[in-house]
Write a structure and sequence with these properties.
alpha/beta; Rossmann fold; 8 helices; 6 strands; 35% helix
Length: 267
């Protein structure tokens, strides 16, 4: 069995999140938005969940509405089975073995159980990544890994299918937050628990690098009013544990009308 590449340092992630808890309530605006989206998406599934679990840390508020009776854990345990609802809250983007974790999540569900997950992905923090890289290369003749690599919609969809989820759907919610300075953005990330999670030596950002990165950010990405936009792509995933009652795709050639004929009828 191939061992997945180790990109993220789990102990560093835990330190980041432990530090963030102190002031998290002042920096949890993204988490609140994402958590509310998850609650709303769950409410659209017209069934009563009697065995529901949320996997995640730094959740703004697990009380209220349907979430009152949901259990919460920081990590999915291998002996958990027969869930009818599983939610993964901002965990998968710092998981080294995403295919394996998705498979474990699918196996934790009873047949026709539903999985909902959220993670940062796509073009999240692209401008910050570019600006820090350029500044470090200019001042230090080399750049460290500062921003985690993020998966895209197509890759996540393929991984969900490979894990055995039925009817997987992936969509993206893009949120742009505008800052007066790069320092404010970095401060928010720190107390969201999203500081550098990468494995390897940790070289602190120097003030000259941050100052130069802000100049580059301003030159290349600033809005017309001078504010610095930070992009966050939130990937939402929904999938079901297979069950015989679910819709099945038609076999190739099983259609009753050619596509061209259908288009001509519309015309």
């Amino acid at each position: 069995m191939n061992t997945p590449p180790q990109l993220f340092d789990s102990s560093r992630i835990q330190k980041n999140r432990k530090r963030a808890r102190t002031y998290f309530a002042h920096h949890d605006f993204l988490h609140k938005r994402i958590w509310q989206d998850m609650i709303e998406r769950t409410s659209l599934i017209k069934r009563k969940f009697t065995n529901a679990l949320v996997v995640g840390e730094l959740i703004p508020d697990i009380s209220g509405s349907a979430a009152d009776n949901w259990q919460q854990t920081n990590a999915l345990q291998p002996d958990i089975r027969e869930l009818d609802l599983l939610l993964s809250f901002l965990q998968l983007h710092v998981t080294n073995d995403v295919p394996g974790e998705l498979l474990r999540m699918r196996k934790s569900l009873r047949p026709d159980g539903v999985f909902l997950g959220t993670l940062f992905g796509g073009y999240t923090l692209d401008a910050l990544r570019s600006s820090l890289f350029a500044a470090e290369c200019e001042l230090n003749q080399g750049a460290a890994s500062r921003i985690a690599p993020f998966t895209d919609v197509r890759t996540l969809g393929s991984l969900a299918q490979a894990a055995g989820f039925a009817l997987p759907v992936i969509d993206v919610d893009t949120i742009t937050v505008r800052y007066k300075s790069l320092w404010e953005l970095l401060h928010d990330l720190r107390y969201m628990g999203e500081a550098n999670p990468m494995i390897g030596p940790l070289r602190p950002l120097s003030r000259p690098v941050i100052s130069r990165a802000q100049d580059i950010y301003q030159e290349k990405f600033a809005d017309s009013d001078g504010l610095l936009p930070a992009r966050f792509d939130i990937l939402h995933i929904c999938g079901w544990a297979p069950h015989e009652s679910q819709q099945k795709p038609l076999a190739p050639g099983a259609g009753e009308m050619f596509l061209g004929d259908a288009i001509n009828k519309i015309r």
